[in-house]
Amino acid sequence: MTHDDMHKTWFLTGASRGFGRAWTIAALERGDRVAATARDASTLDDLLERFGDAVLPLTLDVTDAAAATAAVDRAHAHFGRLDVVVNNAGYGHFGFAEEVTEAELRAQMETNFFGAVAVTQAALPHLRAQGSGHVLQVTSIGGISAFPIWSAYHASKWALEGWTQAMAQEVAPFGIRTTLIEPGGFETDWSGSSARHSERMDEYEALHARVDEMRAQVAAHRGDPTASARAVLALVDADEPPLRAFLGTSPLSIAKADYEKRLADWEAWQDNAVLAQG
Fold it and tell me: What pTM was computed for the model?
């Protein structure tokens, strides 16, 4: 048996911290190989020292589509194949819808949406050629629901969810599987130093106070990103992985409440919808 028969080869963005680092280490510890990207590849030096040739550190800013293609191609040439492609790179933007500037919104979309699209489009030719592969897009419970102060973030993740759901149907005939990973609150740097904030408007002072209190309560119950690696490995190893999968205990109840409300509204207004049909 060759290495490729026994283990998987990953391409994973945002590997310097949070989910990306935890999943990179978990994959390497079980004998997989990982092309791990970060905006500064030197942050991965310790992994190179620990795991040697099993890890390929790559510098990548996912907002540079040409660089994304070059990184994916280099990883494929280095390892000979790609089995798992994980789009994890991203950041959170905090600001009410009226507060977020066009430039801030575009920057959020460039990283969280267009960055994932660029990496995915670069990887698909390799996966099609080998007739297999698994694309994992890290979205969020915020990719199917929405809360105050994260309008830009939600826009980027909802866009990725829709694009990926369509893509999953298009690439399935080539043996390519797709999973949208939707975490709840975890102790990552998503809301820390990597986060960006819009300038607050005085008119929203009262709402900001309520949202800040809500965020503090949520922060007290965040999960451990290291523990999440077990769930991700289970998805990667599944014979029939799901299109969507939550991480954490909170997303399911949030999703149920949200979708129950949607269904109730649609049902209540169905007669009105029929009127539109003529």
Answer: 0.93
